[in-house]
Amino acid sequence: MGGITMKQQYDSYRTSGIDWIGDIPSHWSVSKLKYHIYIDSGDYISKDEISDDNTIPVFGGGEQIGYAAKSNVSGNTIIIGRVGARCGCVTPIIQQAWATDNSLICIPKKNFKFLYYLLLAANLNKLNESNAQPLITSTKVKNLIIGMPPLVEQEAIAAWLDEKCEEIDAAIAKVDREIELIEELKQSEISRVVTRGLNPDAHLRPSGIDWIGNIPSHWKVCKLNRILDGIQDGTHATLQRVDDGYPLLSAKNVFEDGIHISENESCISTLDYNEIISNGYPKKGDIALCCVATIGRGCIYPFDYHLAFQRSVTFLRINSHYSNSFILYYLRSVSAKAQFDTYAKTSAQSGVYMGDLKRFFICLPPLPEQQAIADYLDKKCAEIDGLKAKLTKKRETLTELRQSIISEVVTGKRKVI
């Protein structure tokens, strides 16, 4: 990415009076964004109108959520996330699309690409007007004060940024592919070991189950229900939220490395919490398994105390004659994924629930071999995750570099023409 680190400044600067910009080149003007764009809210579209059978992309708050048969924006348009997690997200549109009512539609009056880069640098999420649900209004965006170079300079800056961002995006795409390959390696190793074992010379026999294939001759196959001491999902009730209480968690809190709890979890009353945990779930050592959304993602429940969960998480209590770590690794395998996919497709609510899980076929070596396999995979997966962490850090650095370059150029801190 030659040339990115070189930095040249303009001959003279003046105070812009804009906190997020600071000084600007002396010949740049200062004005409100509304003089450079047309802005309006997106439009409601029903779920029935969104289908992969259609061809026009639908954007909800800046994130594509499907396809429609109609459009409300055309090319050279900028969509800004108006509400929720995508609040302030900036997405360029170069073809027909539909922007939902979670979006603001911005049409630049002149240079589309420069305004797009400028809005990326502006960190629009700071315009959020709500503490509960993030929200920005068109009035706030229109009244954003910006520094503007002459049109010819805007075009030159946009062209330069197109070239540099393309280089960085290519580098990010390469890292993404490396991360994808590492994930595939991890998945492949887990799948191989939990169905074939650690001995490459082991004699194999047909398991009799298409999802599993051949297994070592001394292993057995059974349904998951045979090795459970218990199974329980989270609450099915619709509960009132309170400001000060116990967090009510869901599948979004369950990851391979444990239970993630943020400071902004919705809470329920002590009475509701006690009702949910009165059945004794979850307990330390249970497998916490996502049964909707990220179906099949799971971890060993790590806490000595109970937490309250919604029905999107199911807890498996493995009999002490079996290794819960081995079973968890098996549930991450290709053969388990095939079963998750099959049951999810047959479920009216697009999930895999307790009745489905009990029917899962699993293959089982003797307990000492289960423990040896789990120990091996702990070590192997830690090595792979370490490589992934380095690549993820590299990706973050590239993303920060991209944002930094955009910000420096569109605010006049770096001269590129």
User: What gap, in angstroms, lies between the N and C termini?
Assistant: 18 Å
Taking all Cα atoms into account, the compactness measure Rg is 27 Å
Helix content: 25-40%
The overall pLDDT average reads 92
Provide the structure class.
Answer: alpha+beta
Report the sheet-strand fraction.
Answer: 15-25%
What does the overall shape look like? elongated
How many β-strand runs?
24
Low-confidence stretches: none
- Main-sheet strand order equals 4-10-7-8
What summary fits the major beta sheet? 4 strands, antiparallel
Q: Please give the count of helices.
A: 8
Structure description:
It is a single chain. By secondary structure, this protein is an alpha+beta fold. Helix content is 33%, strand content 22%. The protein has 8 helices and 24 strands. The strands form 9 sheets. The protein has a 4-stranded antiparallel β-sheet with strand order 4-10-7-8, with helices on one face. A hairpin with an 8-residue loop joins strand 7 and strand 8. Helix 1 crosses helix 8, helix 3 (151-196) runs antiparallel to helix 8 and helix 5 crosses helix 8. The protein starts with 12 loop residues before the first strand and ends in a 7-residue tail after the last helix.
